[in-house]
């Protein structure tokens, strides 16, 4: 039996009218968060989006008198030159190989140091260790290159000075390409590991201490706690940092390579030449802006597809840890 509701029974009942939330009202309600994001928004707007029209340089034969939009349009001729010359494949291989070494060894060392710092019980020693490992990050690449030269120089280097004191043959380091991959990787790890370990150490600090205490009560030793509690806890952080790193896998550390090796040491090009140093030579030595822009565009497009592919693979294995 259906009950009819009379109009009189609704008299006096409050009528709730839902206000439509406009984008402007929503923006105002989150004004504090938006204000905090303004510096980052301006940074990417000025450094990443406003220069985008300059990509047109990659498809023209740039002429100084005619300007960017008055120069001859050549299509993909700049890219064809890079491919036919063989320079593109060598530069790509070197850049990816170095970045993979930086990513793999860097993350292993950073995670290991963060775990070791977490296991330290003396607070003063923990703070001292963090400060000493963090210090190399503030040393400029110019100074790093100067230190390396004073150690490795054939005539005046510390290393050859020690070898000569034992009547051994001095090493011609700056003309021997086989040892430079090791020198570059070790230098990068020395300078960046302390800084990178802070992210993992901060993630460990977010771990619930009750879980660790419960594991200790159940008899888990330090290695078992690290294996079954700490490392799984660091997994999401590692995946996110890995995806960010893969996005820049074709962007070499110009400051490191330029100051350690130099941009014109032809004897070391096979082992140390990366995309950034090639672009620098194209701009500063040959004044070929179109070729440099073509390489930079290739970097960006290739890096974009690497991030998309890596994120897709992570989604297949661990969907909750994907970047997007």
TrEMBL record:
ABC transmembrane type-1 domain location: 92-310
UniProt topology in membrane: Multi-pass membrane protein
Cellular compartment(s): Cell membrane
Gene3D superfamilies: MetI-like
InterPro entries according to UniProt: ABC_transporter_permease (IPR051393), MetI-like (IPR000515), MetI-like_sf (IPR035906)
Family: Belongs to the binding-protein-dependent transport system permease family.
CDD domains referenced in this protein's UniProt entry, alphabetically: TM_PBP2 (cd06261)
Keyword vocabulary terms for this entry: Cell membrane, Membrane, Transmembrane, Transmembrane helix, Transport
Protein name: ABC transporter permease subunit
Lineage, top ranks: Bacteria, Bacillati, Bacillota, Bacilli, Bacillales
TM region positions: 28-50, 96-120, 132-152, 179-207, 228-250, 289-314
Domain of life: Bacteria
């Amino acid at each position: 039996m259906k009950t009819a509701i009379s109009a009189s029974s609704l008299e006096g009942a409050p009528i709730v009218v839902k206000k439509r939330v406009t984008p402007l009202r929503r923006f105002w309600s989150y004004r504090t968060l938006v204000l905090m994001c303004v510096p980052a928004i301006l940074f990417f707007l000025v450094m990443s989006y406003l220069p985008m029209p300059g990509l047109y340089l990659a498809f023209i034969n740039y002429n100084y008198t005619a300007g960017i939009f008055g120069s001859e349009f050549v299509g993909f001729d700049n890219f064809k030159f890079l491919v036919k010359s063989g320079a593109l494949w060598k530069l790509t291989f070197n850049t990816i190989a170095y970045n993979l070494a930086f990513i793999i060894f860097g993350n292993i060392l950073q995670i290991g140091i963060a775990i070791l710092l977490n296991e330290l019980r003396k607070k003063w020693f923990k703070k001292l260790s963090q400060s000493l490992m963090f210090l190399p990050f503030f040393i400029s690449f110019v100074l790093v290159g100067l230190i390396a030269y004073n150690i490795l120089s054939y005539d005046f280097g510390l290393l050859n000075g020690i070898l000569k004191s034992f009547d051994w043959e001095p090493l011609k380091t700056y003309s021997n390409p086989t040892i430079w991959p090791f020198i570059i990787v070790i230098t990068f790890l020395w300078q960046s590991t302390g800084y990178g370990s802070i992210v993992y150490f901060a993630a460990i600090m977010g771990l619930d201490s009750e879980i660790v205490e419960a594991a200790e009560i159940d008899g888990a030793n330090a290695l078992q706690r690290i294996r079954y509690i700490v490392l799984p806890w660091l997994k999401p952080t590692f995946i996110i940092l890995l995806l960010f790193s893969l996005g820049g896998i074709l962007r070499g550390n110009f400051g490191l390579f330029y100051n350690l090796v130099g941009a014109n040491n032809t004897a070391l090009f096979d082992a140390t030449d990366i995309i950034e140093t090639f672009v620098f030579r194209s701009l500063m030595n040959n004044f070929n802006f179109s070729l440099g822009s073509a390489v930079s565009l290739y970097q960006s497009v290739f890096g974009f597809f690497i991030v998309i592919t890596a994120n897709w693979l992570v989604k297949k294995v661990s969907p909750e840890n994907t970047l997007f």
